[in-house]
């Protein structure tokens, strides 16, 4: 458990981490495909049938939606302290994301202009897991960027066991700015959002985490609707030198490991002594955790410590793995920031642990996993907007260039394109 390896083995470690997503889900996909087709063809009738089967309540068009009375009841049931914290976190998240909004722009010259418009999607569907655990932080992280983008219809879907939704989820959705909350979960909720039913409009974008059936459904409906990402198992990589506090690093390792048995925790350090100190501390702290069994399985499967010869080699290893979460626990973490190329979210210093980003600071915790930080980004305002190009030429300006358009079109063998340009100037 927790082997101490050299930086030369980084590629082998990365391949092992990426193998976590290679499970065969063909049986689950078959079930998902049947649900998607059924709801696409039969709408409410099929949707209500699955809700009765999986969530165990007699759903109809009237009780599918969370009512105002249920909203008020949810706020009464949640501890006032937690409500206050969620409201403060929501302010932080909105402050961060509203700065991502873009302005329309145009390049104007005499008789012509080109430009770009940023247009929010009309409908955004946010999926929120239910079951044994409630994740109000994910509710805030998915809804608030959509609100900042200007989406006018933000609808939430979450399973309601026996017709009841966890009150914390309901309160978080209202605080974040959701317009409707539907009592539906699983692949059937994704299908309803993607294809629409008699009670639910089609969504333009679907976001939010879920179990394997939800993930496969999102992947299957992509193209009918946009999706945020196909999230894999979570991971953290901690970059540390000899100045780092081993107790802090161990605690951060374990906070990631308790997610599930596939969670990956990697320490890259330039100090072999620190590597041994951290390993000892991790095993000591793990003994006191309620989820010790999950933690130990995660560490056994994917817990790794890498000892690099230099800090440059350590950074290179981190960039190669491209972690979802990257913590930099060194004497001068800001000095390494310009050298980081691949990471979903970067945490600088010993007092910026991953849970700060998960819950409160304002950055988004919906992040690229499994090395996809090489080419993708955290959930953001852009995910809920489209870009439309704009072109205007006056007759005089187009006359100056239409022969160039005509020549280019003919070079590609597209005579109709060429004539489209030329016909405007025929006698």
UniProtKB/TrEMBL annotation:
Single Gene Ontology BP annotation: L-histidine biosynthetic process
Cofactor binding annotation: Binds 1 zinc ion per subunit.
Catalytic EC class: oxidoreductase
One Gene Ontology term, aspect cellular component: cytosol
Annotated keywords: Amino-acid biosynthesis, Histidine biosynthesis, Metal-binding, NAD, Oxidoreductase, Zinc
Domain of life: Bacteria
GO molecular function per UniProt: histidinol dehydrogenase activity; NAD binding; zinc ion binding
Keyword Protease attributed: no
Cofactor requirement: Zn(2+)
EC number: 1.1.1.23
Residues given in the record as Zn(2+) binding sites: 256, 259, 358, 417
Binding site for substrate: 234, 256, 259, 325, 358, 412, 417
Pathway it works in: Amino-acid biosynthesis; L-histidine biosynthesis; L-histidine from 5-phospho-alpha-D-ribose 1-diphosphate: step 9/9
SUPFAM superfamilies, A to Z: ALDH-like (SSF53720)
Pfam family, one: Histidinol_dh
Catalytic activity of the protein: L-histidinol + 2 NAD(+) + H2O = L-histidine + 2 NADH + 3 H(+)
Binding positions (NAD(+)): 127, 188, 211
InterPro entries cross-referenced by the UniProt entry: Ald_DH/histidinol_DH (IPR016161), Histidinol_DH_CS (IPR001692), Histidinol_DH_monofunct (IPR022695), Hstdl_DH (IPR012131)
Record: active site: 324-325
Known function: Catalyzes the sequential NAD-dependent oxidations of L-histidinol to L-histidinaldehyde and then to L-histidine.
PANTHER family for the chain: HISTIDINE BIOSYNTHESIS TRIFUNCTIONAL PROTEIN, HISTIDINOL DEHYDROGENASE HDH
Family: Belongs to the histidinol dehydrogenase family.
Protein's name according to its UniProt entry: Histidinol dehydrogenase
Name of the encoding gene: hisD
